[in-house]
Structure formats: C-alpha cells, structure tokens
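Is this the right way to post structure tokens for a design question? Let me know if I should format differently. Anyway, here goes:
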C-alpha cells in the first residue's frame, strides 16, 4: 500500500471495480439540517450567556456549566458535517 496518509483508509468494494468509502451517511439531509440548526442555535445562545456573564462580572466558576452547552452545540455541528 503506497498511501501517503498516516492511517490507511478503510474501503468496502462489493463489485471489485473501484474503492468506495466505508462511511456511508446514515442520516437524511433533513436530519443533518436539524442538527446543524440546533448546533448553531446552541452556540449563539451560549455565547450570549457568556457575554452577559462577562459584562456583569460573574465568577469564573459560574461559567463552567457553559462547557456542557458548548459541547452540545459543537457535537451537533460535527455530526451534521460528518453525516453520522
């Protein structure tokens, strides 16, 4: 195998004529759009809450729960982009 990538790509080739990626999208375009919309909305809300906390000088410990909100938004966007 003379692939220049550090890890070889897994391929599935049932017909034997050309390599095909093993990762097949398992959600519909409508569901990907819903996940992307949720992720963007979640990040906008989280940044808004963070901005309010910074303006009012909230303690740093109060900002910690925002990590869960950032994570939820980011994971939704990554899922939509990766089609999983």
């Amino acid at each position: 195998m003379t692939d220049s990538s550090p890890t070889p790509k897994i391929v599935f080739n049932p017909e034997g004529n050309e390599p095909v990626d093993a990762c097949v999208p398992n959600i519909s375009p409508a569901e990907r759009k819903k996940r992307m919309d949720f992720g963007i909305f979640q990040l906008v809300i989280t940044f808004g809450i963070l901005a309010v906390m910074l303006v009012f000088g909230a303690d740093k410990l109060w900002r910690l729960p925002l990590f869960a909100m950032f994570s939820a938004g980011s994971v939704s966007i990554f899922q939509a982009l990766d089609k999983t």
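Format looks fine. Someone answered above. Worth noting: Helices lie at 29-55, 60-63, 66-82. The two ends are 28 Å apart (CA to CA).
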